[in-house]
Amino acid sequence: MPEMNYSKKLRGWSLSDADAAGQLLEVTCQFCRTTYRYFPRDLLKLTKNISLDRLPSRFRCQRCDRADYVSLKVIQLWGSEYGRLEVRRLVGINTVKKPIWEDGVL
Fold first, then answer.
1. Mean pLDDT of the chain
2. Could you tell me whether strands 23-29 and 70-76 are parallel, antiparallel, or unpaired per DSSP bridges?
3. SS3 32
4. Whole-angstrom Cα distance, residue 58 to residue 48?
């Protein structure tokens, strides 16, 4: 029997489920081969609790600025990976104030 499509496996799994299981989310740009790993708890501070198959569309590669080549993989941590695996942590959130103008007649 053929292997199930990976995106269908992610459909039933949400950010809070991955956080409760102690997993990491590995986001890879298939165009420039850049990989970043995130904790699901950090991503829950930025977005609502969505299924993991819809999460890659919210990412954009910081190196090549493309969003159409981004893929997501769920990683279960092993004991030997602690202290070696590079993970991005959320330090702070900056909000940008952008003025909205309207043209009117006196």
1. 86
2. antiparallel
3. coil
4. 12
